[in-house]
Amino acid sequence: MKKLLTTILAVLMLCLALPASTEPAEDAETLRSALQEKYGISIRMGDECREDPSGSFQTVITPEGDTAFQQMVYGNRRFLDFLRLLDDTLSAYPPDFFSCFRLTRNYGGLKFLLVDDILRDGVSLGGFQSGADPDGKIRIWLSRTNAKERAIHHEIGHAMDYRIRWKYPDAFDDWYRLNPEDFLYTGDFSGTGEGNEEPDDWFVREYSKIDEYEDRATIFEALMTKDDAWWETRPYLRRKAELFLEKARPVFGDLPTPK
Predict the structure, then answer these.
(1) Which residue ranges make up each domain of the chain?
(2) The whole model's pTM is what?
């Protein structure tokens, strides 16, 4: 009896030690299920992401709570606010847009992997895209602490690029002709961070100059976030955006067009 009382007391003490919260633990799971149904996507959170390879990126997963019991109680609650941001961002896309990532009815699609942080060379990033899993689902990794609306659009742009080239491998063979004469991509990711500076009419920001894939992803993020006035002063970027949309249209249908 004494041993039973001791066990009950220990459990009560653990419960009292849990951080206060106004949100029930299951809210993140409920919202995750709703978003998967709403957009036809897959979402993995925290420990569920450990089996997917992340390549040269370091993904950080820090379960909430100091003990296994606390982590069991809180589960993926820490992702709740980010799931709300994800919903707000994805709602900007046309109906059935995300179904276009499927190759067949039961193969392909889009998988979002939500982790606590993403590092490359010691620099925290908002996200990255890492090919497709064995079921053909294109992976988008997002950091709940760093990814904002722009980063989500950026990684969707990468996923679109991947999907387009999957169907049309030579789709962007002429991309280099849209750059300044003698321009070469740097190929250097080290120390770039997000590269927010807007250098000129040819590129959305410095980060765009790393390679053609970052160039196209930043153009797509600009299509989703910049207003008409921004595009009006950038005729060369509009040419790039128009080519991207031309190649995307057979797969994804009509998307935002720069004015």
Answers:
(1) 21-148, 168-259
(2) 0.85
